[in-house]
Amino acid sequence: MLRGRWCRGPAGERLGDRAAATGVDSGGAGSGGSERGRPSGPLIVSVTDFTSDAYRDLPGIARRGFALRRRWPQLAGAVGMWLWTMPSARRCGSVSVWAGRRALAEFVRLPEHVAIMNQYRRRGTIRSVILEHESLDTARIRRDAEAWLTSDDHRRAVRETPRRMT
Fold first, then answer.
1. Directed axis angle between helix 58-69 and helix 111-120, to 10°?
2. 123-143 pLDDT, tens per residue?
3. pLDDT of residue 151
4. Domain residue ranges in the chain
5. With contact defined as beta carbons under 8 Å apart, do 94 and 46 qualify?
């Protein structure tokens, strides 16, 4: 799995997690309930996994994903995120961390996100999961996301997905 760099959002700065800001794995510094303006309640982790029907769609998906990532530092409630890809399996997606469910819902409604989903949703299979974490432990978040992404059930489903030759 190829994974991009950690991209910190404005809510990540409030957490005061120096390790997360630099992309270094963290043991969860800054996980206190109200420390440095950290919102109360769990952090919301959204893991998305898109399997394209055709290899030819992957460059466009990546281009649109990187363009959306450029907005990340201005998104209210965004803590941080990684983009990832498995080109040989026609798969790509993101692992994003949010200060709360409302922030994630606002992102999902962004016109740029809606446009990407409308353009590609019928060109493959998408699945996602929402996880909750009590602290910003980037190593644990990444391990949990990768475990979900590589689960046996999904590998079987991908093998059964018909491929269109292009």
1. 170
2. 999 999 999 999 999 999 999
3. 85
4. 2-26+33-160
5. yes
Rounded to whole angstroms, what are the CA distances from 97 to 56, 72, 127? 29, 11, 17
How far apart CA 138 and CA 17 sit, in angstroms, is 10
- Residue length of the chain: 166
3-state SS record for 37-100: HCCCCCEEEEEEEEEECCHHHHHHHHHHHHHHHCCHHHCCCEEEEEEEEEHHHCEEEEEEEECC
Asked if residue 50 lies in contact with residue 95, where contact means CB atoms within 8 angstroms, the answer is no
Could you tell me the fold of the domain covering 2-26+33-160? Alpha-Beta Plaits (3.30.70)
Residue range 25-63, pLDDT digits in tens:
333 333 333 333 445 579 999 999 999 999 999 999 989
pTM of structure:
0.78
69 vs 61: CA distance, rounded Å: 12
